[in-house]
Specification:
By secondary structure, this protein is α+β, with helices and mostly antiparallel strands. The protein has a single domain (22-145), classed as Nuclear Transport Factor 2, Chain: A, CATH 3.10.450. 32% of the residues lie in helices and 38% in strands. It has helices spanning 2-18, 24-36, 70-87, and strands at 46-57, 63-69, 91-100, 105-114, 119-121, 125-130, 136-145. Strands 1, 2, 3, 4, 5, 6 and 7 form a 7-stranded mixed β-sheet that branches. Strand 6 (125-130) and strand 7 form a beta hairpin. The protein is globular and about 45 Å long. The N and C termini lie far apart (72 Å).
Length: 151
């Protein structure tokens, strides 16, 4: 009986070890791919407690900032994804950089290009945090927007 318990324990341990934790690069690639496909499940990558920070510059010089909780942002993303798809309102990312903030948090900076409005947001970043299931979730996102197109 003792050998069976030991064998089961070893099998369970080795099964857990074979499931590799997701890398920050894999996470960001998945985030980008879902966005490129206008897949509403991209919202599932955000934690409910995430902090979404949006900064907008107007041509008049007016600047506004807004902050949204993860639950609000997730609902909004799911709601607007069909309209975004119809307008090809998506982002591409260049110059992606990863920096560890803690043992479980990584900051991802990138130059975000807004395809529909033809501008680059060099201040874009995400903060992701490793979850107990070995996958990351977004706990913070910051981006800047413009109301008018530069196209």
């Amino acid at each position: 009986m003792r050998k069976i318990v030991t064998l089961i324990t070893l099998l369970l341990f080795s099964a857990q070890m074979s499931v590799a934790a997701e890398s920050p690069q894999d996470f960001f690639q998945r985030f980008d791919q879902l966005g490129q496909r206008f897949d509403p499940s991209v919202a599932d990558l955000y934690s409910d407690g995430a902090s979404i920070k949006i900064y907008r510059r107007y041509p008049t010089g007016l600047e506004r900032s807004m902050e949204m909780a993860g639950t609000e942002w997730k609902a909004l993303v799911r709601k607007v994804m069909p309209a975004a798809s119809a307008k090809n309102d998506k982002s591409t990312f260049a110059n992606v950089r990863y920096s560890a903030l803690t043992a479980t948090k990584v900051k991802i900076n990138a130059d975000r290009y807004a395809v529909r409005k033809c501008y680059t947001d060099p201040a874009y970043y995400l903060v992701i945090e490793m979850q107990p299931n070995g996958r990351y979730s977004i706990v913070e996102e910051h981006f800047e927007t413009k109301p008018l197109s530069d196209c």
